[in-house]
# Entry
Amino acid sequence: MAEVSIEKLAENIGTTVDKLLQQLADAGITKATGDHVTENEKAQLLDHLSKQHGGTGSEGPERMTLQRKSKSTLSVTGSHGKAKSVQVEVRKKRTYVKKSAIEQQKEQERLAAEEAARKEAELKAQQEAEQKAKEEAERKAQEEAERKAKEEAERKAKDEAKRTAQAERQAKEQQSEEVDSAQQEKEKLEAERLRKEAEATALKKAEEEAKRKAEEAKRLAEENEARWKAEEEERARREASADHHLTTSTYAREAEDESDAQEEKSARRKKKKKPAEKAAQPVRGKGKKGKLKAPTSLQHGFKKPVSEVKQEVRISETITVAELASRMAVKGVEVVKAMMKMGEMVTINQVIDQETAQVVAEEMGHKVVLVKENELEEKVLSERSESEALEQRAPVVTVMGHVDHGKTSTLDYIRKAKVAAGEAGGITQHIGAYHVETEGGMITFLDTPGHAAFTSMRARGAKATDIVVLVVAADDGVMPQTKEAVQHAKAAEVPLIIAVNKMDKEGIDPDRVKNELAQLDVIPEEWGGDTQFVHISAKTGLGIDDLLEAILMQSELLELKAAHKGMASGVVIESRLDKGRGPVATVLVQSGELNQGDIVLCGLEYGRVRAMKDENGKDITTAGPSIPVEILGMSGVPAAGDEATVVKDERKAREVALYRQGKFRDVKLARQQKAKLENMFTNMTEGDVSEVNVVLKADVQGSIEAISDSLVKLSTDEVKVKIVGSGVGGITETDATLAAASNAIIVGFNVRADASARKVIEAENLDLRYYSVIYDLIEEVKQAMSGMLAPEFKQEIIGLAEVRDVFKSPKIGSVAGCMVTEGVVKRSAPIRVLRDNVVIYEGELESLRRFKDDVAEVRNGMECGIGVKNYNDVKVGDQIEVFETVEVQRTL
# Structure
């Protein structure tokens, strides 16, 4: 990028240096006299000034007005016959409106109107459905009540008629026995009167019973309507509060109310029976409220709960939804419903992690007990003898700092070796571990990368250390990774020693480093703080002895102690897969003594130590506290940062490792399923998103972490990086097959493909890239993603013609006689017709002529005749705008 000094820029734009510096400071750019300004900073300043004066900054304006003014002199003859000059000024004003803004506003108004109409229709349909349901329920209740009343009245009338007929038969028998005909006639009349009275009584009773039944049906309908309204209000309240759930007591009360209502209804139907019928009924006991009680032999022993049941739920690291529901004594669908209210889409057989299960159980009102199912692991680790005496140990020092500030060079001088020259590109890309013997004792150094991509490796180095030496270049000052290193050291609560490097250069300012670090709350001792500042030069060796002395002094204050005998324990600093030797792990021993032949349990892996090497590659048989060693013989490549522990029994170590692998797989699966279901709707709405699939292989685990994090951060809304496979070691045939199946590019970082993999790569024509510097890798993937971005199209106005006259042509119609005022008019380009700076037509030219000849283009200042295709309403004063659509390649 072109840079210009502050003074030159002030001179170019016609302002003072002080005013320019103040404007830069207001825009968030800190500069001093003599500094240079880049193109990006210029653009940032212009954006700030535009917004300060009411503009929109770098964003295009919605409306733009152009004004043009021209002057001419006319010679006019006065009243006395003398000629005089008159100045004539012509002003033109033209306003351009961004089409996208108007269309966007119209689209928003249309969408708002459609949404309002849709909501109104849904509300109306819902009200109509509720009204219909209510009317249907009332009609059914009325019909049921009338039917029952009619049946009851008919039955009563039949019984009464039967009794009346029997009375008549008895009367006839009595009449046949009487001799006197007058008496018989009297009895006949009496019987007729009795029959009529009985019929009248029966009819009256039937009418009263029907009336009572109708009133009962009406009352029940009103009760049902009141209950329906109450249920509607209760449902609305439940929907308003998302945390409401039905309890067991609610179910019990509803079941009991329904049972009581049914029994009362049946009791009203069964009125008093005849004595003979009562005698025929079996004798049953009565319970509360006079309700009939079933025989003891027919009763079951289950009692409905009348209060909410609280369970003590034991949750392991992973659990299925069905098992969680069983432990809470609820239905599985209730757990699924509760998780859906919390925004979790799950199935009944899905495995969820411990944290999610705990939140669900507590939400449903149960007490949670978290269980760790690692009794075997605790038993194996408890067999270690921890009764060894503690002795003083050497400090573990991590060297941190920004890229190219001299971390590795400082260690080179201390070790008298040349490590930086062997690193690709001159930057450290692995954690290096070394121990050196000094006059004051032994010191172990960890050298961490300074590039931004290696954040996780620096954090891991800070956790495994006692002291952090922060290297800051005196000519560069505090940089982004310097601040990050200070944050890591404070998070790990590790003391800092500042090594101000490159003191052999001219024109340096070490006080600047102190001022900048003081802003990060790192105060030097001479200013009343507790941080040692040592001035060094990794090139000449200046101050290296002072740095070692400061490290030893700090370690004495920390009183570092560890057991020098007994079973060792430590931490994995780095790990890789060696083609000839198998899994190799760099372990920093923190306590005890690690011997060749020991059984080591290391995260998800285990194994017997077959060989041990120091940092120089020499074979050793034993290593004490604060000694970094490479060990061989592990069952697989352990993850960097795993704890390495020596155990007694290899069989138990294998069981613990297998148990950890199973648990890790379950937890990983639970998290993956959760992520997939959570992102299901997001992926559906995103539409077609371009993806760059990558199969990544590297020489060590730390590089995989760093590269994966950097590549994933490159993802945008349109293009995403997806790492479909990664691992430590060379590129194998399996990796090539995976890349072919997933249409991925293969990236090798300090590794190469074997013969079988190369055959697959050639046959499938796969994209294989080798890298040894992380900058190049990230840059090339970024370029690949830029190529996958959809191109952007922009319209450029290439010419403008003003209509001076309009002619009629029998073949074409209206022909506009125009003067080209700007640019060039091309026959092949699309056009717009403007009237009062408003677009009234958009189309294409039918003909373009100069005099009588058809021409391809007419340039600025020339006259021409223009025929607009399918448009005849061209008027004098209109403008014809000619434009082209240009494709703009997009970049990240």
